[in-house]
Every structure is written in C-alpha cells, then in structure tokens.
Amino acid sequence: MTIVEFADVFTRPVYKDMIIDRLRYCQKEKGLIVFAYAIMSNHIHLIVRTDRKTGLSPILQSFKSFTANQILKYLKDKKQPESRRERLLDTFAFHARKNKTHSQYQVWQRDNHPIELYSPKVIRQKLDYIHLNPCVAKIVSEPEHYLYSSASNYKDGTGVLEVTLLEDIFGSDIGYVYMG
Fold this sequence. Notes:
four-stranded antiparallel beta sheet; 5 helices; alpha+beta; 4 strands
C-alpha cells in the first residue's frame, strides 16, 4: 500500500504508530492475520490473510480509510508538530480532485498490488524482500534493527506488533497474499 505521489509520510514515528495501532485493531477485531510487515517512508509491505468469508478486501479498505482519516486529523491539528503540514495536505487535496473522489483528500493510492504466495520458495522470497527493504533503503544495517518491521519477530520473537510466523505453517496448504 502506497501513499499518493510517494509522499514520505512515514518518516515520523507518530504516523508509523498509527499504522501499527490499526494493524493491531484489525488483527483483534477484523480477523486479519499478519505474517510479515515493514513500514517504509511512503509505503507498507504486508504478508497477510484472513479466514473470514468476506476476504481481505473489506479489511484493507477499512484499514486504509481509517489510517487516512487519522493522518489527516493529525495534519489538520495545528497543535501537532509537523513542518510538512501544508505540502502534505496540498498533495492529498490535489489527488482527491485529480481522481474525482468524493472526499476532500486522498492519502493512499487506490490499488494495492496483491500477489498470491503459492509455494514455500515464493513465500521465503517475499519475506526476505520485506525484511531487507529497510537495509536496502539504508535505514538500518540489519533487518531486525528496524523497529517498524516484523524482522525482529522472526529473529528473536520480539516486535512492536505480534505476527504469526510463516515458518510455523510452511507445511500447510494456505493461500497467502503479499501486499507490495
């Protein structure tokens, strides 16, 4: 999931914490199963699924809607420290007008780029890609050092968000979805 115009919203912890809080809510209340994640400066990588018959689409739509509203609420609150306030709001307003949405602002790009993960080899490839993303971006030197990623969950069982480890279920016949 990507922010419109690749705007670097998630450079500040306050916005990343909004994402973590909402993922946690979706796990508890909406049946989202999170296997892996990384919150980058302008996009989020996820490996997720749900057992609910409605599928992932309504969960992710709700997630994007809620987090967009939280980000906008924070940006509009002049008491909150944010040097990029006007530029971000202008960007989000421009995309809402450009895409003729029924809202004043558009925070997230509309598409998600889902990929079904159908084999242990593909799962491992995507898991490594997600966890190495902060290293490739030169944010950290080791994947598990990045706080806003599930790499530490896989390394030593810690992490800011509880995840279901893929290694525990590699042998089972489960369809995964990778959200790029």
